[in-house]
Amino acid sequence: MKKLSGAVSHPLVVEEPLVLTGTALRGALVCDGGSLDLRGAVADKLTIEPGGYVLLSGTCTGSIVVHPGALLEISGTVTGQISRNDGEVWAMAGATIGGRMVGSGGFFVEPDPSAPRAVDPPRFRIAGQGTLVDVVS
Questions:
Q1: Contact between 136 and 124 (Cβ < 8 Å)
Q2: 136 within some domain
Q3: How many other C-beta atoms are found inside a 10 Å radius of the C-beta of residue 64?
Q4: If exposure means fewest CB atoms within 10 Å of the residue's CB, which of 14, 34, 80, 110 is most exposed?
Q5: Which long-range contacts (CB under 8 A, 24 or more apart) does 72-76 make?
Q6: How many domains does the chain fold into?
Q7: What's the pLDDT at 41?
Q8: Please, which residues bridge with residue 74 across strands?
């Protein structure tokens, strides 16, 4: 698996497994067969095409587009919006989406930065897009 750190000044195109510990300043595109372990940040648009996979444990400050057949798992922070959600989006308890934290009960709660991280947090399906994002199961 390739690893990339530091600032990436061009749009990042992911066509194979990649760990990003740096920052994609101009966004990222995850193609069919590509997987992105996002431990750093995407500072612009994150697009996941059909067959693409992203584990977001870092931060995304731009908009997120999830196409049909794509998978996004969030355990980190999304400060931008999920502008298109036609694939699968899952969030683990403790993840923050649009300033709201996913609670262990399966609903959004006010973020508590002092709360301890769960060792094996439950994950929940996220539906909707924009300001209408909600936890559904």
A1: yes
A2: no
A3: 24
A4: 110
A5: 72/48, 73/123, 74/126, 75/121, 76/38
A6: 1
A7: 98
A8: 56, 91
Segment 98-119, tens digit of pLDDT: 999 999 889 999 887 777 777 7
User: What is d(CA 52, CA 58) in angstroms, rounded to the nearest whole number?
Assistant: 18
The CA distances from residue 132 to 9, 25, 43, 91, in Å, are 32, 27, 22, 15
Identify whether 58 is part of a domain: yes
> Above 90 in pLDDT, residue 8?
yes
Nearest to 89 by CA among 122, 135, 38: 135
Residue-wise pLDDT for 54-79, tens only, equals 999 999 999 999 999 999 999 999 99
Point out which residues pair with 4 in neighbouring strands. 20
